[in-house]
UniProtKB/TrEMBL annotation:
Pfam families: Aldolase_II (PF00596). SMART domains: Aldolase_II. It comes from the Eukaryota. Residues 73-258 form the Class II aldolase/adducin N-terminal domain. InterPro entries: Aldolase-II_Adducin_sf, Aldolase_II/adducin_N, Aldolase_II/adducin_N_sf. It comes from Aspergillus pseudoustus. Gene3D superfamilies: Class II aldolase/adducin N-terminal domain. The lineage of its organism: Eukaryota, Fungi, Dikarya, Ascomycota, Pezizomycotina. This is Adducin-related protein.
């Protein structure tokens, strides 16, 4: 009689008695409302990717004069460049350009308050009158409105300075940092020397009070750069390209100051300050002697518009 292995007998019995495992029941599908789609959902449908993208694909440039259409394209380009350079702060900040109406009055163009700078197009810019009334809502058709602080700051300067076409404002960290220093902006390096005379405006909180317009204009005076203390910076120019390139140089200069101050270990005696004569010479060459062979900012903005055209020409829409 052959004895069987007890372990094999137990294993066989275990397999014979094991019940087949029933397949898992499918997870019940939840019922979504007809208005909800995971692919297009946004906290507010009117601000969804689909809705806003459809609006921004429309061009209405033929509705405007050639002068205004050109201004819209240039200003939209600068919004895209601010985004590309990281000069914007979320949806905040504002760049404006003055345009002339057929009846001789003046208006200015500003961004819809809610678009990313990287989304701004020529046709999306909102046209505002000196009194703050919207003259043309652009293709977003009132969906976003405008930043009230943008109106207060920019309208004050445009009204006080008829020689300016464009005003730009941002909170770039190194510029906001310099705006918070008691000694203010230092003309440390060649880039710093090119920006020119600086004005200062004391901090009064978020700029939404119309009463502040008077002091804004008075503090700006005839200068094209103003530090808003503990806040940010403003640049302005007789063209959109001039205001943009002045911002380009100013922000680079504040970066230089931040680096130099760190290297100086907080001791101003370690900073090598050039003479006023040298500083003035550099400014004269850049602004009054046609160093680039063209109007200030013209070649520079044109070059960066070519870059945008390669990356994403939709700003022209």
């Amino acid at each position: 009689m052959t004895l069987q292995n007890p372990r094999l007998i137990c294993r066989a019995a275990s397999l014979a008695c094991r019940k087949p495992i029933a397949p898992a029941s499918p997870t019940p599908r939840r019922s979504f409302s007809s208005e909800f789609s995971p692919h297009t959902y946004a906290p507010d449908t009117q601000y969804s990717s689909d809705h806003v993208s459809n609006l921004l694909q429309t061009s209405i440039l033929p509705e405007f004069s050639e002068q205004e259409a050109k201004a819209r394209i240039e200003l939209a380009a600068t919004y895209r460049l601010f985004s590309l350079k990281g000069w914007n702060e979320n949806i905040y900040g504002h760049l404006t350009a003055k345009v002339h109406e057929r009846n001789g009055s003046e208006s200015f163009l500003i961004n819809p308050f809610g678009l990313l700078y990287s989304e701004v197009t020529a046709s999306s810019l909102i046209k505002v009158g000196a009194d703050g009334a919207v003259k043309h809502p652009g293709v977003t058709n009132g969906l976003f409105g405008i930043n009230d602080a943008g109106f207060v700051i920019h309208s004050a300067i445009h009204r006080a300075r008829p020689d300016l076409q464009s005003v730009m404002h941002c909170h770039y960290p190194s510029a906001a940092g310099v705006s918070s220093l008691k000694q203010g902006f230092l003309e440390l390096a060649q880039t710093s020397h090119q920006v020119g005379p600086i004005a200062y405006h004391d901090y009064q909180g978020v700029v939404v009070d119309r009463a502040e317009q008077k002091s804004l204009a008075e503090d700006m005076g005839d200068k094209n750069i103003m530090f808003l203390r503990n806040h940010g910076v403003i640049t302005a120019g007789s063209s959109i390209g001039a205001a943009w390139y002045l911002m380009y140089q100013l922000l680079a200069a504040t970066d230089i100051q931040s680096h130099a101050s760190a290297c100086a270990l907080g001791d101003a005696q370690n900073l090598n300050m050039p003479s006023d004569r040298t500083v003035n010479k550099t400014y004269e060459v850049m602004h009054k002697k046609g160093f680039s062979g063209a109007a200030y900012g013209l070649k520079e903005l044109s070059a960066y518009m070519r870059l945008l055209d390669k990356l994403d020409p939709s700003y022209r829409t």
